[in-house]
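Running this now, will post back.
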Amino acid sequence: CPAGSPPPPSPSSSPSPRAWPPPS
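Update: finished.
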């Protein structure tokens, strides 16, 4: 990553976690 760019968002800290099982 270029200098000065923020790190990529972590999958564990995603705003909308994956629901399991997925809604039908």
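The radius of gyration is 14 Å. More later if anyone needs it.
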